[in-house]
């Protein structure tokens, strides 16, 4: 069953959307596969698609996958997004080296038709945004977004280190308070 993500994007910024594909890494060689996402006016619309993101593209809609983190980033430049219609449907799939196709997710993309442009801030490749510019209906405000396992582990280690540091600081503070009383007793008798 294909997961549905209904996306919210804007026509006045570069497109950047990150998904965690780490759960697929034990099943497929994602790095050797082609990741492809196409957007069309309707599911039945003929070729070519309105827009395509692909790991085999060298410009336009790009897909990059980091095997170390399991994160996949879909990006496109602001100049391309400025041409988007208000509503599209899309799906994303992984094309394996043996020719097999694995559907990953699908849904709708709603573009807010924004006016103010920031083209001087976004790069031609659309990869300069540091955080996602695309939202998913149901994620974000009030919804928790799960971290990839590798980042969850790092967070747990950092929280443990912070707790240990607080405990050590409390012990040092109490030891300092005790030694101050001893020093006062020795000096003032």
UniProtKB/TrEMBL annotation:
<protein>
    <submittedName>
        <fullName>Uncharacterized protein</fullName>
    </submittedName>
</protein>
């Amino acid at each position: 069953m294909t997961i549905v993500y209904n996306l919210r994007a804007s026509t006045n910024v570069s497109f950047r959307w990150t998904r965690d594909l780490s759960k697929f890494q034990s099943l497929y060689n994602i790095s050797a596969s082609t990741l492809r996402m196409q957007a069309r006016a309707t599911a039945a619309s003929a070729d070519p698609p309105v827009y395509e993101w692909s790991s085999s593209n060298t410009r336009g809609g790009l897909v990059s996958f980091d095997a170390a983190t399991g994160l996949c980033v879909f990006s496109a430049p602001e100049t391309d997004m400025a041409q988007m219609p208000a509503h599209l449907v899309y799906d994303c799939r992984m094309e394996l080296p043996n020719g097999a196709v694995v559907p990953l997710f699908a849904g709708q993309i709603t573009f807010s038709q924004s006016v103010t442009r920031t083209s001087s801030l976004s790069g031609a490749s659309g990869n300069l945004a540091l955080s996602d510019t695309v939202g998913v209906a149901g994620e974000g405000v009030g919804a928790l977004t799960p971290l990839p396992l590798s980042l969850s582990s790092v967070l747990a280690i950092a929280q443990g280190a912070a707790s240990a540091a607080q405990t050590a600081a409390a012990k040092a503070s109490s030891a300092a308070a005790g030694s101050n009383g001893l020093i006062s007793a020795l000096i003032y008798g």
